[in-house]
Amino acid sequence: MTPEExxxxxxxxxxxxxxxxxxxxxxxxxxxxxxxGALALRLxxxxxxxxxxxxxxxxxxxxxxxxxxGEEFLEPLIxxxxxxxxxxxxxxxxxxxxxxxxRAVPALREAAxxxxxxxxxxxxxxLAVKAIWALGAITGAEAREALEGLRDDENEIIRENALxxxxxxxxx
Length: 172
Description:
Elements: H1 3-10, H2 24-31, H3 36-50, H4 53-65, H5 74-82, H6 89-99, H7 105-113, H8 126-136, H9 141-150, H10 156-168
Helix pairs in contact: 3-4, 5-6, 5-7, 6-8, 7-8, 7-9, 8-10, 9-10
């Protein structure tokens, strides 16, 4: 993606007090697409193939702006949740939670315990918390078992959030 295209996509980001500077229709027209989800998926796959962290962010912005949440995003998001070459793990985990797929459980369980190098400073474990809440949104035994495994974690934040999700689900 060119710097100009990145600027165009960044215009989709809602800035408090300013709003957006671009519409999804403008971005779609530039890329010759009529469907925001299709564009987001194409951009995401291209960024992953090139291992371009900036373009992963751009693809996720388009995905959010288009409110695209189809099953076709599941495998790329699972792959991205484990990739150490980008810095959008919290966004990826949040998006996996919205999909509510049992197939995402192993990746979310890993994300709850993994601290990427760029997040070493985060004592609040935001990635873990988002992963645990995403697990809490997924029905079924596998998600419950993942949460039960996390409730005994050595990290207090992980334990507390796993317990909150189990309680919210009525599974304590």
